[in-house]
Design a protein that fits this description.
14-stranded antiparallel β-sheet, about 375 residues
Length: about 375
């Protein structure tokens, strides 16, 4: 039997009871910046290699894309993929990059067929349940929402193989860990929009910390955002147990030590109060930083941004020398993801060592940290 032809306005996903608005499931409303994206990272705890990967769909831009960004030593290499969007959303793929969902929220597979010397075949398994995060909203000038997104987050392990320029990495879940999130909503994507009236007040900066960490017995997922004056506009912090129970971790107090002459973190100290008022201290150590706006396409990437149209079946490989002054000058204007070694110190139990992601950035002003303009760096 030949395949049934599709008729405009009716899509295969409309067979499933998953609609959210009175429209076909492919339609997402009128915001040009609507996106639907997955983010992943992977490392072997050594600080010798760190990978960040992602795939995004942008229905109102007619595009989809994917990327991998790899940091090894002083070199950061990115692969970018782009194509026209299609209606087969259950088959997530962009060029040679695909994601297979074997068991939702637990077991997935990421594959990159050989592209300019890079390939991988990795299986993800969740170590603890995925949890929802608070809805994340940022407004320009106190009015227009420039970001309105929902996420879920998870920590997990990896198994499989990675090949980078003829060097093969055998990925074992005993050592390879990572974190992931799925987010959707609206945020700046694609080509720049007309500026319109300047925001009043203008954007003066932000302070950001995202730390999903897997310990042996539990996970910590912590996300905090502050304004230049230290006012906290996002505070969503939990401990996650294997059976799905979660504990709120209150209002953590954070202290950060930066590399001299930079805004890149070396270590962080987080003071937490558990629901029973037990005082906990968590130490974060950055073993290898990766600037996600240098080849990763996130905010501030001047070479490639998510959602941009570069043509059907497009791909490219780009390599950066992270000691190059031109690249070094870009790093303070975006977020840095780091291989993280964490230590949880709680009275009455031995210190617990965990591994995951240490994502941090101070963009522009943050007076509590001592960054009083866009160009101040740590002593």
């Amino acid at each position: 039997m030949s395949p049934m032809p599709e008729v405009p306005g009716v899509f295969p996903l409309d067979e499933y009871p998953i609609h959210q608005i009175p429209a076909p499931i492919e339609y997402v409303g009128t915001d040009r910046n609507f996106y639907d994206r997955s983010y992943w990272n992977a490392h072997d705890r050594s600080g010798e290699i760190f990978m960040v990967m992602g795939m995004g769909y942008y229905p109102n831009l007619g595009t989809k894309d994917a990327f991998i960004c790899i940091r090894r030593g002083e070199e950061q290499t990115a692969l970018h993929f782009g194509d026209a969007i299609d209606s087969d959303r259950l088959n997530q793929h962009v060029g040679n990059f695909r994601i297979e969902v074997a068991e939702p929220l637990n077991h997935l597979r990421l594959v990159i067929e050989e592209t300019e010397g890079i390939s991988l075949d990795l299986t993800w398994r969740g170590l603890f349940p995925a949890i929802p995060e608070q809805r994340h909203v940022m407004r320009a000038g106190g009015h227009r929402a420039i970001l309105d997104a929902q996420r879920f987050a998870q920590v997990g392990s990896w198994e499989g193989t990675i090949v980078i320029d003829d060097q093969t990495y055998d990925v074992s879940p005993d050592t390879w860990v990572g974190t992931r999130d799925r987010s959707w909503g609206a945020r700046p994507v694609g080509e720049a929009e007309p500026a319109g009236k300047p925001a009043d007040p203008p954007f003066d900066g932000m302070w950001w910390l995202y730390a999903p960490i897997a310990f042996d017995d539990f996970a910590m997922i912590l996300i905090i955002q502050e304004e230049p004056d230290g006012r906290r506009i996002l505070n969503d912090c939990h401990r996650v147990w294997p059976d799905g129970r979660t504990e709120q971790l209150g209002w953590p107090l954070v202290t950060t030590d930066y590399r001299s002459g930079t805004r890149t973190p070396l270590t962080g100290r987080i003071e937490i109060r558990l629901p029973d008022r037990t005082e906990v201290e968590v130490e974060l150590e950055s073993l290898l930083p990766l600037a996600i706006h240098v080849g990763g396409g996130y905010g501030g990437d001047s070479d490639w941004s998510h959602g941009q149209w570069r043509g059907a079946g497009w791909s490219e490989r780009v390599t950066y020398d992270m000691t190059d002054e031109a690249v070094v000058g870009r790093v303070p204007f975006g977020l840095t993801d780091s291989v993280c070694r964490a230590t949880w110190r709680e009275p009455g139990r031995e210190p617990a060592v965990g591994w995951g992601l240490y994502e941090h950035g101070v963009i522009g002003l943050h007076r509590p940290t001592g960054f009083t303009d866009w160009f101040t760096h740590a002593d």
